[in-house]
Amino acid sequence: MKRVNKLPLTSDCYHWTRLAEVPWDLQKYWQQRYTIFPYYDEGIYVTQDAWFGVTPEPVANQIARDMGSIISKSKTTVIDAFAGVGANSIALALCTAEDGITPRWDKVIAIELDAATLACAQHNASLYGVADHIIWVLGDSFKYLDALVNAPHKLEDDLRVDTASTAVFASPPWGGPGYRTDEIFDLNTMEPYNLAQLHGAYRTMDHALYLPRTSDLRQIAKLVPDGTKIEVVQYCVEGASKAMVAYIPAAKDDDTYMET
Ligand SMILES: C[S@@+](CC[C@H](N)C(=O)[O-])C[C@H]1O[C@@H](n2cnc3c(N)ncnc32)[C@H](O)[C@@H]1O
């Protein structure tokens, strides 16, 4: 697995300027484009699939601030495991420490499986002036994290980070817009990756999981040892919760968990 330099935008990367250009099932998302991307007109590019899952910029910025403060300052690298078109990676790269000047994270590693989506993320990050501050990886973040934890010697220098000083942000696909109809969203049946897969991949590091707003809190509570206080935050846009983020501390060898 290697970092990639700037990928070219492809015919799957779009910057629509008129409603007539937009496929009907994406029109409602495009009509919210200034809520999602306040600087859309600067030339933001998005793939068709990415419209469903992109984090609105105000939410991405607040999550970046919260990650910066909730997660210990001893964590200096952050991995965005599902970079998409870059909203969270950009916000993490822009986030500053308490002095308002120094970047909160020494290193931001952004991983994305789809080349066209990653090309949009890199392009969008360049509009915010942070493309060169992010290490971009085209590939499967589960494979990368497995190598990082179990076989770091296989990784190139830039990607071989110390897991003790690393945090993970994960905004996985939620299995399409169908999640909205569930009164309580079952994280064990989430597709293509369920809660156990996600937590299994990140458990040795502090991690933040971006999940449907109705996610089953009991399933999240089972991830942490008895008596642990965790933060689970609802992020709102225009008067409604958009998603929740569960901030989960790294597991320790002597942790004891609730019997299920
Ligand atoms: C919900 S979107 C992420 C949205 C992103 N936070 C943003 O604001 O644009 C999930 C992304 O994860 C990517 N993806 C799916 N499986 C992946 C994997 N195993 N490794 C890396 N990326 C993956 C998908 O291609 C998709 O772009």
Automatic annotation (TrEMBL):
<dbReference type="GO" id="GO:0005634">
    <property type="term" value="C:nucleus"/>
</dbReference>
<protein>
    <recommendedName>
        <fullName>Trimethylguanosine synthase</fullName>
    </recommendedName>
</protein>
<comment type="similarity">
    <text>Belongs to the methyltransferase superfamily. Trimethylguanosine synthase family.</text>
</comment>
<dbReference type="InterPro" id="IPR029063">
    <property type="entry name" value="SAM-dependent_MTases_sf"/>
</dbReference>
<dbReference type="Pfam" id="PF09445">
    <property type="entry name" value="Methyltransf_15"/>
</dbReference>
<dbReference type="InterPro" id="IPR019012">
    <property type="entry name" value="RNA_cap_Gua-N2-MeTrfase"/>
</dbReference>
<dbReference type="GO" id="GO:0071164">
    <property type="term" value="F:RNA cap trimethylguanosine synthase activity"/>
</dbReference>
